[in-house]
Amino acid sequence: MKSLTPQQIVGGLNRHESTAFDRVYKQYFPYVAALARRLTNNSIYAEDIAQDSFVRLHEQTGRFGNLEKIRHYLHNTTLNNCADYIRHQ
Fold first, then answer.
1. Cβ of 36: how many Cβ atoms within 10 Å?
2. Helix, strand, or coil here: 10?
């Protein structure tokens, strides 16, 4: 897999390029999934919740200026997804 700079990853994600999205997914999915498992007390739906965070990320266009903003978005989206899951239990 070709090496991408952080700026290339962010720019590619903002343009919905699959290579950039794959990089972000590989980098952040373990964190997002662990957060969802922890917040939902290891629910069988934790990975679905994490996946939904990435679906929502993919729906954003031109919004992110750096990788930290992407991580922050995924973190907050996962928190909200988990809160919704818990509220509906």
1. 25
2. helix
